[in-house]
Structures are given as C-alpha cells and as structure tokens.
Amino acid sequence: MASQKLLEMLNEAASRELQVSIQYIWQHVMCRGMFSETISEILEKIAIEEMKHYEAIAERIDYLGGVPTTRPSEVKYGKNIKEMLEIDKKDEEGAISLYKKIIEVAESEKDIVTKKLFEDILEAEEEHHYKFSTLLETD
C-alpha cells in the first residue's frame, strides 16, 4: 500500500510527536518564573495537541500496514523558560520541514489521505512555531 520510505517517514513523525508530547508536559510541570503560569498552560495545551497528532499518525501507519513506533525522539528540556521555548521553536521547525517532505512523498504516491492528514498537522505545527516565536520576542 505505502512505500517503505513513506512508512519510515511516518514513524519518524510519530517518534517526534511522542518526543514533544513528553517534552512539553515536562516543561509545563517545570516552568518557573514570572510568566510561568501562562507559559505552563500553553505548553500543556500544545502537549495534548501533539499527543493527538501521534494518535492520528499511529492509526495511519497501522492502516498502511506498518507498525507505529512507541519510541520518542530525544527529549530536550532547557534550564529556564527562554531555553525551553528556544528548544521548542527549533523542534517545531524540524517538524514543519519533515511534514512538508511527507506531504510531497504522499502526493507522489497518490496517498491523498496521508497528504491531507499531514497538511492538517502541518497547519497546527506552524501555529505552535508561531506561538513559541512570539513568546520569545523581547519587545
């Protein structure tokens, strides 16, 4: 049904979604400082969205005949809110890049369902990236 290349890319995406789900929840718990309450709430909300992305990707992998990974990519934390947000912004940039590639491969394989799934997830990841970027602004 799907190529091995596409299944591997989907599992890379699943691994990344597990990573940021864990990472953002940990950061939500460990937030300290003047703006910690607000940022903690944002991280919790995004972590839940990322877990839902993992679920959707895992279901798609299963449907396509693959086995979804349960191993997260490397979880990174940061020592303070600024470091956390910088790490998170970079992780979202990586997801955006990967998901654009997945969309291209899915389209080339005429897999419109996977393409649509990742277009929807890409939209959310760009929103997360924007949120982290704006939180890091100093003006």
Task: Please give a structural write-up.
The chain contains four helices and no strands. It is mainly alpha-helical. It has one domain (4-136): Ferritin, core subunit, four-helix bundle (Ferritin, Up-down Bundle), CATH 1.20.1260.10. Helix 1 (4-30) packs antiparallel against helix 2 and helix 1 packs antiparallel against helix 3 (81-108).
CATH class: Mainly Alpha
The second-level CATH architecture is Up-down Bundle
Shape label: elongated
Compute the number of helices: 4
CATH fold group: Ferritin
State the total count of DSSP E strands: 0
Specify the biggest β-sheet: none
Low-confidence stretches: none
Oligomer: single chain
Radius of gyration: 15 Å
Mean pLDDT: 96
Structural class: mainly alpha
- Name the helix and strand elements from N-terminus to C-terminus, one letter apiece: HHHH
Helix share of residues?
over 70%
Estimate the strand proportion: under 5%
* Ends apart, CA distance between termini: 50 Å
- The total domain count is 1
CATH superfamily: Ferritin, core subunit, four-helix bundle
